[in-house]
């Protein structure tokens, strides 16, 4: 397990995370910040509602500080397996990868998916 991973996210929950990211990014039902630098800024400023990080980041130290900031600012965070799949779900061009995304805004149509994923974070992070 990489240094930035605080807990395991089961595959079925990862699918729900990808669906949430897709509805916010690709389908335009919210606003996202993409990449570790943008995510770090959003977390530090407290503007992130949730952070999604890829597990296959190399080196893992790239994201090691993000869970600490999220805990300090009480921002939920969760993991998915693949950077490329995360980038695609976020609506980035094909062949792009992103280590992390921050959810900044959630429109009404996507709120149910967002709340469901947030509930999984609360369960997983306290286990």
Automatic annotation (TrEMBL):
Residues 29-107 form the Ribosomal protein eL8/eL30/eS12/Gadd45 domain. It holds the Pfam family Ribosomal_L7Ae. InterPro entries: Ribosomal_eL30-like_sf, Ribosomal_eL8/eL30/eS12/Gad45, Ribosomal_eL8/Nhp2. The keyword Oxidoreductase does not apply. GO terms for cellular component: ribonucleoprotein complex; ribosome. The keyword Transferase does not apply. Keywords: Ribonucleoprotein, Ribosomal protein. Belongs to the eukaryotic ribosomal protein eL8 family. This is 50S ribosomal protein L7ae. It comes from Candidatus Thalassarchaeum betae.
